[in-house]
Write a structure and sequence with these properties.
With 451 residues, the chain is mostly beta strands. It has helices at residues 6-11, 69-83, 110-113, 160-176, and strands at residues 16-20, 43-47, 55-58, 86-88, 119-127, 133-141, 146-155, 185-190, 197-202, 209-210, 218-223, 229-234, 241-246, 252-256, 262-267, 273-280, 285-292, 298-301, 309-314, 320-325, 332-337, 344-345, 353-358, 364-371, 373-380, 387-388, 396-401, 407-412, 419-424, 430-432, 440-445. It has a 5-stranded mixed β-sheet, covered by helices on one side. It has a 4-stranded antiparallel β-sheet with strand order 10-9-8-31, with no helix packed on it. The chain has a 4-stranded antiparallel β-sheet with strand order 11-12-13-14, with no helix packed on it.
Amino acid sequence: MKRLTAWTLLLAAGALTLAMDPMAQAQEPPEQPATTTSDIENIVVRISAPGGQDLPIAIPKPKGDGSVSDTVWEVVRNDLNMSGFFNVIDPAAYIEPGSAGIQEGEFQWSDWDVPGAVVLAKTSLSELSGDQVSAEVWVYDVPGRDRMGAKRFTASSSNARMVGHRISDEIIRLVSGEPGIFTTRFVAVSKASGNKEIKLLDVDGHGVRSLTKNGSINLQPAWNSSGTQIAYTSYRGGNPDLYVADLSTGKVRRVSSRSGVNTGAAWAPGRDLLALTLSSGGRGDTDIFGISSVDGKVVAQLTKTPGIDVSASFSPDGSQIVFASERSGGLQLYVMSADGGDPRRLTFQGNHNTDPQWSPKGDRISFVGRDGGYDVFTVRTDGSDMQRVTQGQGSNEDPSWSPDGRYLAFVSTRSGGSHIWMSTADGRHQVQVTQGGGSWSNPAWSPRLTW
């Protein structure tokens, strides 16, 4: 069992996990999706939470002469800067000769002491027949003079950016014990065309493509738990109706077209069930209903009190929902059983709390509160330990959790216009995702995707 260096332990203080990594002793990185096992146990220091660790990491340019090399290198460095785990060392500080390899014995550890690297990520790319590239990533603990792990996979060379994202996610997995989020996506509303259309985009803001092109107003997209369908509200037929797009077939179906609003859809985990805000009783109020995502039939009316009830979100196990209601005067958050029943009030501070989103970890709920402007907050599910994510930086709205619960996406006006930003859950590390003059709103973070 290896001895950890004092420096490595010091850098990880306060957030380390000791984990057995069977892959760390493999002589060659396995082909994806194969796995390897080993009788030799190796202790690896892992940083468990992004934001404030800033581990110095060196990422030399990938070995190999593939045409995708420069793009992959750029993507990986940008991802790791965005992640909040690392301080990516300027390549101008590297002294390693270009002839050095990526495996142990093919490079000198001391070359990476000079720029102060604690983590070293070496990669190689080789073009295969057809539209394929083989990528390898080897990750090292420099002070400990040890390998943390390695992986090989194949991917389409026509999508070099996704190759880079896969490498980034693997580096983060080896350091933190959980994969990164750069192979996930956002669905969001963009007004770049003059209309509000639904767009899909990568977590770094690239790869934008249209889900709707109907020239109307399209709002509030929401993923199902498998990442194969997206529900959204559209005025394409003159009324705010609910539609569901199937990403595997490209087909779109109208699910709810009741008079008045059909908005704020939220999927029940693993089920063909949506919590939806509908106009109720001709009073000008709205209530939350459970409806089938297949045929739109009402399964249950969940709220029935005077005043608006909006913006439902399911707990990760699907047993509860959180929603915003003005039943007590001003919008506040309430939690209730997903089958109905008496809700309990969650928030008591402020007079306008809305857009709640339940964390995939199940421990916290994000929401928007009005405190002069609009800001993003989180609170424990028992109403305690309220924390600010944003403050004094424009208007910040529409929070959405990453699938690992370590980050929040939201829309902010702090840089001019309305852009998607990404923050660690504690607010310590925040980066702008979208660029340019486009006006963005309603970002929803995908689950982990297999496509």
